[in-house]
Amino acid sequence: MLPPWVVLGTAYYPEYLPRELGDRVETDLDLMVAAGIGAIRVGESVWSTWEPQDGVFELDWIRPVLDGAADRGIGVVLGTPTYAVPPWLQLKHPEIAAERRTGERVPWGVRQEVDYHQPAFLFHAERVIRRIVEHHRDHPAVIGYQVDNEPGLLLPHNESAFEAFVARLRETYGDVDTLNEAWGLTYWSHRLSDWSELWRPDGNSTPSYDLAWRRFQAERTTEFIGWQADLVGELRRPEQFVTTCLAYDRAAVADVPLSSRLDVAAGNLYVHVQDGLERPARPPRFEPGWIGRSVADLYLAADRVYGSRGEPFLITETNATSIGGSHLNHPPYDGQLRQLAWAMVSRGARMVQHWHWHSIHHGAETFWGGILGHGLEAGRVYDEIAAIGGEFAAAGASVAELRPDVDVAIVWSTESDWALHFQPPLAHPGGAPDKSSYRTIVTAFYAGVIDAGLRPGVVPVERLGVDPVALVSRYPVLVVPALYIASDAVLDLLVAYAQAGGHLVIGPRTGYADPEARARAEVAPGRLREAAGVHYLEYENLLDPQPVVGLDGHATRWAERLILDDADVLASFEHPGGGRRPVVTSKSFGAGRMTVVGTVPDGALARSVFSRALDSVWSQLPASVTALSAVNPAGERLWFVHNWSGSPVSVEPPAGVTGGRLELGPRDVRVLGEERA
């Protein structure tokens, strides 16, 4: 499906260029070849170009691009344009508009305004998909398809969506009495006597309802993308792949089931560059959102894409230069694009596509910068992209299909993210709820793994499996922060993992609620208590960071009032109200161990926890350096060593790593081999 090397790519939109600029296709493709760009994504945003009027198709406008790409050995990922609906369809079928709230349609004029389960939309979507794929599938340039684009933006409240939601509830629960009990609807007089009494989601305050609504919406997104993937799968050539590009923060996306409907997982990964990519990490300048704010965020995002299917993946979009709106103009420093590209490869990326080839001269994304700026002249960014292309070509198959080594795996729970968005445990200064609580907690632990010089990974809770011995063999340390929504079976698996020899580390809120988002009627941490050797009856928000003793660093934002059963105290803090309280404990359990971190650790505390859990392969790494490894299909282990600072640094590799003492320049990266035993 892809060539046996890492492919450098970009998105190419010649149709966006002003007509007075003439035909630039040959010029652009020649520049791409010179830069080592081997794949382009086309056509996913212009339904009104493919089908300017109802039933009138213009399918050959893209032919010069396909022909030119084929002549130069550039592969083409052809997009289906279903996320950007043409005006004629909006006018002919206004009912396809999604409703953000009941009866309030999303206004036309942006993109992704549609409830994609509306029959009229599906009819026209299938028709245009069939025409595009049937017309171009045999073109030698086409190597695969991207269906839709960043799906799951909205939670449509349309009447048909709500009716389908109620039908799903009836199928799941059978009768309203069962639903009443499962959701605790006696509270505030919400008990139902008939399904017709279920209120709309707009004003909902019941956590169980919200979680069921989010699950339902994510299932609809999976069904829609799966429907497209199956349709294209019937039409394509056998060697062509089908994927979509996920924005992992979308409200209606569950990445594991969705990616299971595709041939390969793919994600869009953007990061605040400049000092956002400095190490040691500086305090973030931006609020949490869809753009990563640190080196840890970068690696965590890439590991999430790998985790979706547990195999190498595609990056369908990443930084070229400034990203976001007209007010966010932060181009990367020299070397940072190269660092980003190799960081993604180190986590298993098979393709890295920079968005996009040329800056757009009009529209909402005018100032989201491309490899070429508005002047369409190759410059600094192009030169660095070309350097990446040269390095990818030189590395060849040795860096393709990599499987990252993992010392410490972080368990990711999309459902816990949803639940803690609805009822956040953390607060912003001033007391407003922090709806990014889940990601804040998880990132604190993940960053600690990086800071300890260890190799992190992400395993979605859906992919833990059922065999604790196999889990121990894959992950010597398993970290479970904020696993708020957890079944008995998952919690029992975690206990069995520790008993079988793994080191289980749990963080705040883990195991506190059941799959209905109900607080468990048991002393926390419930089914984990025996293995943990501690319990707690109270918890609180910390208004100020509290220095700990026993380990480095501070407890921040949250503290569970841990009561010792038979665990050892690793760290404690002096509570402002008086008395010393344990905040990190550990207990030997069976053949393994369980550590409880009852707070959101700051960087120093998280690093201390993981440094105590495992020794780094690389001793005394400078604070600006990360060293992560992966194994290729030939069994060769490669080390990716990044210097994330603007100053040069010297690093002594461990025994067996080739090349001797390493001199890294400012914002440099090297790929090193390892001698085989």
TrEMBL record:
Gene3D superfamilies, per the entry: 3.40.50.880, Glycosidases
Domain annotation Glycoside hydrolase family 42 N-terminal: ranges: 12-392
Keywords associated with the record: Glycosidase, Hydrolase, Metal-binding, Zinc
Record-linked InterPro entries: Beta_galactosidase_Trimer, Class_I_gatase-like, GH, Glyco_hydro_42, Glyco_hydro_42_N
GO CC annotation: beta-galactosidase complex
Coiled coil: none
SUPFAM superfamilies to which the protein is assigned, alphabetical: (Trans)glycosidases, Class I glutamine amidotransferase-like
EC class (word): hydrolase
Molecular function GO labels: beta-galactosidase activity; metal ion binding
EC assignment: 3.2.1.23
UniProt xrefs under CDD domains: A4_beta-galactosidase_middle_domain
Family: Belongs to the glycosyl hydrolase 42 family.
Protein name: beta-galactosidase
Organism encoding this protein: Kribbella caucasensis
